[in-house]
Amino acid sequence: MAPRSKQTPAPTAVPHVRVAVIGSGFGGLGAGVRLRRAGITDFVVLERADAVGGTWRDNSYPGCACDVPSHLYSFSFAPNPQWPRSFSGQPDIRAYLERVADTFGLRPHLRFGAEVLEARWEEDATRWRLTTKAGEWTADAVVSAAGPLADPQIPDIPGLADFPGRVFHSSRWDHDYDLAGKRVAVVGTGASAAQIIPAIQPKVGRLTVFQRTPAWVLPRRDREISGLEKWLHGALPPTGALRRGTLFALRELQVDAFVRRPGLLRLVQQIAERHIARGVADPALRARLTPDYRIGCKRILLSNTYYPALAAANTDVVPAGLREVRGSTVVGADGSEHEVDAIVFGTGFHVTDMPIAQRVHGVGGRSLAEEWKGGMEALRGSTVRGFPNLFFVIGPNTGLGNSSMILMIESQLNYLVDALTSMASVGATAMQPTARAQRHWNLELQQRMSRTVWTTGGCSSWYLDDQGRNTVLWPGSTTSFRRATRRVDLAEYELIKRTAPVAAEVAA
């Protein structure tokens, strides 16, 4: 008898969706809500972690809170009358995002543990193929909502690998490690460090802070929201809208000083100088903590406890970066040596070199990282030539220095939905910006950037890329960005129509 031939198992069909969203922070969840409201329900939200929340899930360090007022740091379509404080903490913001996922029916669309390893544009099929740790999907369009504050950046410090104590980044806090009585080094004095330092200083034995460049710090006008206010905003929603509108208007009035007339910030800088004087009695330490650049050039921090923590008896401020590690000894760039048990890096994220760019491949297989080798740029912060049907939420030059990023996110979501519906109305399968439109947008943007405080203020910040260009912030008001992204101008785009038949697709 002839041997029975082995049957080859039938290949598993790859699920297909109209839209694949990467990330489930504010941008990803907002995209899900707007897609559903536009009648687009054939989508998935691919999340690498096991819960929603994005940066507000990852950053759980002591003292973590938002520096934008709570009633402005929420979706316009999902007001929260129950914010506990005027500047709410990380647990409350994360809980808010969980409620958004539940309230707007996003759970069935979420795929956890689905880190995107590769997204590749298939030209013949005019669609994206996404390879994730949870399997493959194909999609007509991809929304990258991974965000710029997603992947921690730890500097390459000689000897760090041999440090015998604990080492972790602020966004990957080790909650199992008790800092009480320990000798702790905090590297960096940015927004995260300014919250961590006051939170841990009272409990650690010794705190050593490595400061390359001091930050300007303003008082934090934080308070508990009263029960009456919560009741009023819940019972009479227009009162909450009025509060949000007032907060919005106040921040819009500040824009001109940042983007056109930095000299107007002198008064604000005087407030910051008085804040240092009140918090730090030692003139030598005060001098070390006083920046030599104009306020606003780097991110302005808000804290009432930062300066007292730095002036505490158990705190040493090293006015230099961390140069090397020798065993349990950390050595500053000024040559000072300090014995420590733990090192906490508050050194920010890969913002101008986002790792997701290495995983996205567009027309001809070219990666987004290659496309952005000379610096990130997109049309209206949302689309990039050579990457059809790829839409960004918090894309290049959409960051803010003084207001709520949720305002920018909602503007980009309007643009996304209008792009998808416009394509459908004209019978196109995909779209990509013309080279002329993308170039014109960015040349004009960089010209406006040249007179901002971020360019003229005399500092070097994480807003700038390796070429010294600011590819992170928006040089205008949130209102002007909303106008720029209200509608898609099809004249700025090349429309692509599918010409070849596509293999059978399975709905996800």
TrEMBL record:
Question: What's the family?
Answer: Belongs to the FAD-binding monooxygenase family.
Which keywords describe this protein according to UniProt? Answer: FAD, Flavoprotein, Monooxygenase, Oxidoreductase
Question: Per its record, what are the GO molecular function terms?
Answer: monooxygenase activity
Organism listed in the record:
Kitasatospora paranensis
The protein's matches in Pfam families, at most eight in alphabetical order, are given as: FMO-like (PF00743)
For the keyword Oxidoreductase, the answer is yes
SUPFAM superfamilies linked to this entry: FAD/NAD(P)-binding domain
Protein name, per record: Flavin-containing monooxygenase
EC number assigned by the record: 1.14.13.-
